[in-house]
Amino acid sequence: MPRFVRDHFKPTHVVPLGLLAALVLPMLLGACLERAQPSVVDVPRPVQVIRVHLAPATDTHGYAGVIQARRVADIGFRTGGRMIERAVDRGARVVAGQVLARLDPADLELSLQSAAADLASAKAQQVQAVADAERSASLLRRGDVAASVDDARQALARTTRQRVASAEAALQLARNRLDYAVLRAPQDGVVIATLADPGTVIAEGAPVLRLADSGTFEAEIALPESALPDLAAAQASVGFWARPDIRLAARLRELSPQADPQLRTYTARFAITDPPDWVALGMTATVTLSSNGGGLPVADLPSAALTDRGDGPMVWTVDAQTGRLSAHPVKIQALHDTTARVSGLEEGALVVSVGVQKLDPALKVRVADIRPAGV
C-alpha cells in the first residue's frame, strides 16, 4: 500500500479495551435486570369495596309543613259591656277556669236587682191571686158566686204562677250574665292572639282572645295528588328543623276532600304521638311518608360506586378469591346527595366504592378494605 494512503487512513484515537468494557457492561446488566422485573399489569391493584346488604324496596317522600294546634277557638264574652281588664297577653299559657278578662259589672248588677224585684212582685201577685181563687171556690160551692167569676179567679191564679216561674228564669239569667262578665279559659291552651284591649265596648259574642289547645300538636302539609293513592298505607314521621336528630311518630288525622284552587294541592294534618315539651306552635316540620315500593330488594351504595360505559348504570363487583372484576348492571331506584339506591345486586356482593372509572375487566385487584353498605 502506498505511504500516502497509509497516512490518510491512520487512526488518530485508540480506545482502550478497559474503557470500552466499562461502557458496555452496565448496558448489558440493565437489560438483564429490566427483563427480570414483572409487568405492571400483573401487580394486583388495591381497591376499597362495599359489602351489599339488601332491604325491601320502599318509597320515601318528605313534605315541609308547620306545627299547628288541633283546635283553635276565638274566646269572647257571653254578654256585652265595657272591658275593664285583660289578665293575659299573647303567648300566655293558661289552664281551664283561669280568669282571662273582665267587663264592667255595674249595668249587669242593676239588671240583677231589677229581675229580683220583678220576681218579688210576681210572687206577691201570686199569693193574692191564689187566695182569691180559694175563696171563690168556697163561695161557688155555697152558691154565693157565679161560675164565670170563679173561672176568672182560677185563671188569674194560674197566670200568676207562670209569672213567678218567668220571673225566676229572668233572675237566673241576670245572675248568669253577671257571671259572664268574667271571661274564663274553657280549656288548657296558649293565647295566640289578643283581639281587644281594655276600654273597648264588647258586643255579646265578639272575640276577645284566640286560644290554641296546647295538648294536641299536628303537622300541616300540602300534598300533591300523586301522593294520595298510597297515603292511607304510608308510615308517617315528623322531623323538626330545630331538632334534626329527632323524629316523632305521627298518623294522618285529616285530609282535605278538595284541592286548593290555586296550588292544586291537598291539605293534610298529621297528629304527633306524644309530643315533647319543646314542641311549639309554628315550628318548621318535615313529614316523611314511607310506603312499600314493591319490586326487587334494593341496596344503598355510594354514588361514586356507579359508572356508565354506554350501556346504562353499572357497578364493579370483585371476586375476593381470584381478584377478578365483573361489570354488573344495576337499576337506579333513587338518587341522593352522596348515595344511590339500586336494585339488581345479590346479598353480600363486594362492590368497588371509589375509583371505578379507572377499572377494566382485565385488571386484577386486591381487596384492601371492606365496609358494610351505608357506612
Q: Could you describe the 3D structure shown?
A:
With 375 residues, the protein is α+β, with helices and mostly antiparallel strands. Among the domains are: 46-57 and 296-372, conserved putative lor/sdh protein from methanococcus maripaludis s2 fold; 105-180. It has helices at residues 3-8, 17-36, 106-142, 147-180; strands at residues 45-51, 58-69, 72-76, 81-86, 93-94, 99-103, 182-184, 189-194, 201-202, 207-213, 217-223, 235-240, 247-255, 266-272, 284-292, 298-302, 307-308, 313-318, 325-329, 331-335, 339-343, 350-352, 365-372. The strands form 6 sheets. It has a 6-stranded antiparallel beta barrel. A 4-stranded antiparallel sheet has the order 3-10-8-5, with no helix packed on it. The longest helix is centred in the N-terminal third of the chain and has 37 residues, at 106-142. The radius of gyration is 48 Å and the shape is rod-shaped. It starts with a helix and ends with a strand.
Question: Concise description?
Answer:
Helix content is 26%, strand content 35%.
Unreliable residue runs: none
Helix content: 25-40%
Number of strands: 23
Computed over alpha carbons, the radius of gyration is 48 Å
The CATH architecture of the domain at 46-57 and 296-372 would be Beta Barrel
Mean pLDDT: 85
For this structure, the CATH topology of the domain at 46-57 and 296-372 is conserved putative lor/sdh protein from methanococcus maripaludis s2 fold
Instruction: Specify the biggest β-sheet.
Output: 6 strands, antiparallel, barrel
Report the total helices: 4
- Beta content comes to 35-45%
CATH top level of the domain at 46-57 and 296-372? Mainly Beta
Helix and strand string, N-terminal first? HHEEEEEEHHEEEEEEEEEEEEEEEEE
